Write the structure tokens for this entry.
Amino acid sequence: MEITKLKTYIQSANINFLLGSGLSQPYLSTLGDIEIWLTELAKDTAISDDVRKVIKASIYKEYFVKVILPNYKPDKENELYKKVIDNYRNFLTIWNEIINKRANRLLSKQVNIYTTNIDTLVENATVKAQVEFNDGFKGSIEQIFEESNFQKSYSKTSLHFHNVSEIPVFNYLKMHGSINWNEKEDVIVNEYALNLINDINDELKSIGNKYFVSSNYLYLMDIMGINNKSRSLSKVSVFDKFLELYEKLIIVNPTKQKFIESVIELHFYELMRMYSNSLEKENSILFVMGFSFADEHIAKITLRAANTNPTLLVVIFAYDDDQEAKYARILKPTPNNNIYIITPSNFKSTNQVDDDTKKKIIEGITYFDLATVNSVFQLINSEIPVNYGR
């Protein structure tokens, strides 16, 4: 898709993003096949409860060690951490400028960022970006999460003439919960469950590595043999405390059953509903970045909205050219032809420019991570005159 066409859409659209774990690389690992493994585990009725417990505990351990723990105590001097934070900061800064400059004054300046990520990297980046940010929490001493907080708009009043103008605000909606969510008296508060996370980590250390197995479910099935697990079946009770503690975390575990489970938890259900409503709104655009659509429920909601809302535009940045077929298979062509998959190759071929600086940026894109997607957004930003929307 051409940059000029994207600029035109952005000028008159309600802006939404869907961010996946791919954007938090290289500091945090992606989910990879964890969702597939847990889903297959839940469906497989041929294995014993003991085997199921071993595999489940092993997968949970990998998710905790690779995703949760590095975010709970981030090494802020780590170069990979700083790189990811800078990428998120640039993303927020660029879009703050775009929303401020765009021509349509009737549109709300709210930007909805939906994510299944449970990390707090975006929240940390807002400190550097200095933008208005709304994560759904309200309060000063003890912040409480309420979906109604996302309906607020933000304005500033000039000192001399008392002119009121709306300013951009980024709504950050974490559909699968967050590492910094904790439950107190049936409400979610903005607070790390420090004791719980420490207890989980201590429990893992006490169990040690010898009872866990490779978390690759297909490997377990093919190589180890399902009925003769050698080292763990006689000690399955060793996982009980770990599983009990882990499942107290205010996150939705990555399985295709997550939506069924999340209905019980009002907040998860409401955030899914809000995502659906955003896509059903007239003249909306959804940018998808670092998200694989392995989450079956979000894929179905997105595809249904694209089918029923001809004014919706879904723009997917595929990490590389090989990803195009996968996205096309998951999000089948719609009668509205409103799903665009942008790969590095087709982006280059559709954006032939004379400007040497822009040409260098475009030709330098070999894959779409957050840094290179930001360069595309910056090109769009440069196309909008500074005073265009004032």
